[in-house]
Write a structure and sequence with these properties.
- Belongs to the binding-protein-dependent transport system permease family.
- It is a multi-pass membrane protein.
- The chain is mainly alpha-helical.
- It contains 30 helices and two strands.
- The radius of gyration is 27 Å and the shape is globular.
């Protein structure tokens, strides 16, 4: 007689069996325990508030480690700084500020030559339309007086992006070849690099490399490399096995198979990674300006500090158009790169006409700038400014709608934000631990439960539990509001191509506009505080909710929709019973990204009066307290990792349920 199968709580098989009843009982007990601890939190001792005697001095340990590295590894950091500083200085000298070679000052490239070279590159990659776009983007930068800052930023991008792409490609290849390396080292490292706040990168960079462009470049590389690693792993994993087998049959060595067959085959997806590296590097320009990067980011930062909305928006839009230009140009060269062209027996000019023309124009205009100063530096009289218009617009809104704005601000604070903050800050750490560990086990088994439990314990044992819950409060409210607004817009865009064409450029602008630029006009209207942080965070985090909802609904197979209509379903029934369930896994990815973007705004919002983990990192940055900043940054990262893993587990179960 066979033994009965053991009861498994991880994967229930029947909708009305004993397993479901067992889980219902377990969840009921867990919520009862959490509610009891919350209501009796003043009498439950260590189960509600982590005792001060139990706090683990992570910050002191981190500070000691950074001090040891600064003392004993200064030779290494100086060598790295010297190696990286050389190409940076060359790029700065060519684009932004004069470079001395053997004591002889060399002229920078003429602004007219750079614009012409960008137009020629656009024509080479994408024809007249792309050339016109490049002319418009670089013309905007010149016309509105943002040229010097933009060239400093472009120089940093031109050196950082190849470094990120090469590093990401090599790490991705290694992770693809050795799955254990990916699972045990690469994936956890990427998770931390993408979720730990960017401000937390700055403190170790300041201590080890000083206040210099090299520090900014390294911080940018840490932030921008993960998409390239992930794109490489995914691209190589998706190559059909027949292609790899063909390379072996053709006599290729493993190295030849990788670099001559697999990498070229994976080019389209790899270029997606390159594109994301460029976008993330440009996203870092403001933050990295705090440690010596300069450029457009520094201009936006100065405008924010002085509350000069016009100057800040002009510099912010300069970053946007620079991002658009580099994005479209990189994509065009990626598609063009897949069509090999052979020029046998012809000269250099015939093989590379656009390159030769661009170099000739750069040389001619730069030499002419030695005689004509207007070609070396754009005369102030040739530029325009919209700064007075921005200020006048904000002043007009403030004068005419002050009562409405103030009523909205006070109403949100008194009736929504303050009660939610008070509730979240009062949640006992043990109650949160029980519920999150149980959710992790329910969704993905004991490994996720263990990971979630350890991360929650870190936040509690570091003495940052209340600030952690303050962060959860602001991030949670912002993410929920972004989803409530963004998902209906995504549904609307998925049903109408005309609406999608209107929404797409708005979403693109929101995605590329620096996060600081969301704050400047909102501060002018709503002053500092949680309401300003909420509005800025929602504006920044709404993009994934729109994009993923639209994309998920558009990916539903038309045959399923036709089948639903044939079965007599109304339009609402087709959406509710077919389209929404099929798009749900994609939509959940959008929810995940919305939460992560909300977390990324936490530290920036600390500059306008919020009191949470972002404030901890910001204070640590001001005091150069590495330990305090890193621990607070890790706590923010762990919130993101918990949300990512739980939503990922729920998405996987949804995909499994839908087959």
């Amino acid at each position: 007689m066979s033994k009965p199968a053991p009861l498994s709580l991880a994967q229930p098989q029947a909708p009305h069996g004993g397993r479901v009843t067992a889980w219902a009982a377990i969840w009921s007990l867990a919520f009862l325990l959490a509610a009891t601890l919350y209501l009796l939190r003043s009498n439950t001792g260590w189960l509600s508030a982590w005792p001060d005697d139990w706090i683990v001095p992570f910050a002191s340990w981190m500070s000691a480690l950074m001090a040891w590295m600064k003392t004993n590894l200064s030779w290494l950091t100086r060598a790295i700084a010297a190696i990286l500083d050389l190409p940076l200085q060359i790029a700065f000298g060519l684009l932004a500020k004069p470079l001395k070679l053997w004591g002889i000052p060399l002229p920078t490239l003429s602004w007219l030559g750079v614009i012409s070279a960008a137009i020629i590159a656009g024509h080479a990659a994408g024809g007249l339309r792309l050339a016109a776009l490049m002319a418009a983007c670089f013309g905007y930068i010149a016309l509105f007086g943002q040229w010097q800052g933009a060239m400093l930023t472009l120089a940093l991008i031109l050196i950082s992006v190849p470094l990120c792409v090469l590093t990401g490609l090599l790490l991705g290849v290694a992770a693809w070849r050795f799955p254990k390396l990916e699972r045990l080292a690469v994936t956890p490292a990427l998770d931390l690099m993408q979720t730990i706040p960017t401000f937390a990168y700055l403190i170790p960079m300041l201590i080890l490399f000083g206040n210099s462009p090299v520090s900014a470049m390294i911080a940018t590389s840490i932030f921008a490399t993960p998409p390239m690693v992930r794109a490489t792993i995914v691209a190589l994993s998706r190559i059909p096995s027949e292609i790899a087998d063909f390379a072996v049959m053709a006599g290729c060595t493993p190295r030849q198979k990788l670099w001559r067959v697999l990498i070229p085959t994976a080019r389209p997806l790899l270029m997606v990674g390159v594109n994301q590296v460029i976008m993330l590097a440009l996203n870092m320009v403001i933050i990295s300006s705090m440690i010596g990067a300069g450029g457009l980011g520094y201009d936006v930062l100065l405008a924010l500090r002085a509350l000069k909305i016009g100057q800040g928006m002009e510099a912010g839009f300069a970053i946007v158009v620079l991002a658009i230009a580099l994005d479209r140009l990189s994509q065009a060269f990626a598609y063009r790169g897949g069509r090999p062209v052979h020029h046998e027996g012809v000269g250099l000019v015939a093989r590379h006409p656009h390159l030769v023309l661009a170099l000739a124009v750069l040389a001619a205009t730069t030499l002419a700038s030695l005689v004509l100063p207007a070609l070396a530096k754009i005369p102030p009289g040739w530029t325009l400014s919209t700064a007075p218009w921005w200020k006048a617009g904000v002043d007009w809104i403030t004068v005419h709608f002050f009562d409405v704005i103030e009523a909205l601000r006070i109403g949100l604070l008194v009736y929504v934000l303050n009660p939610i903050r008070a509730f979240c800050e009062a949640i006992p750490w043990f109650a949160a631990l029980v519920l999150l560990v149980l959710a992790g086990y329910r969704l993905a088994g004991w490994r996720l439960a263990l990971l979630v439990g350890l991360l929650v314990l870190f936040c509690a044992s570091s003495g940052l539990w209340q600030k952690t819950m303050s962060t959860v409060y602001l991030c949670g409210v912002s993410a929920v509001l972004a989803m409530l607004i963004g998902m209906p817009i995504g549904v609307w865009a998925s049903r109408s191509d005309r609406v999608f064409r209107i929404i797409e450029p708005v979403v693109d602008t929101l995605q590329t506009l620096p996060s600081f630029c969301f704050i400047i006009p909102i501060v002018m209207l709503f002053r500092v505080g949680d309401v300003t942080a909420l509005i800025a965070t929602v504006s920044f985090a709404i993009v994934p909710a729109i994009r993923y909802t639209n994309h998920g609904l558009r990916q539903v197979p038309p045959t399923l929709i036709e089948a639903a209509k044939t079965a007599g379903c109304t339009r609402w029934q087709t959406f509710r019973l077919v389209q929404w369930p099929m798009a749900l896994p994609e939509i959940m990815l959008g929810i995940n990204q919305t939460i992560l973007l909300s977390l990324s705004m936490i530290i920036i919002c600390a500059m306008i009066g919020t009191r949470d983990l972002g404030q901890e990192v910001f204070i640590a940055l001001a005091k150069a307290d590495a330990g305090r900043g890193i621990v607070a940054g890790l706590a923010i990262a762990f919130i993101g990792i918990i949300a990512d893993r739980l939503i990922g587990g729920a998405s996987a179960k949804a995909r499994q349920r839908l087959g």
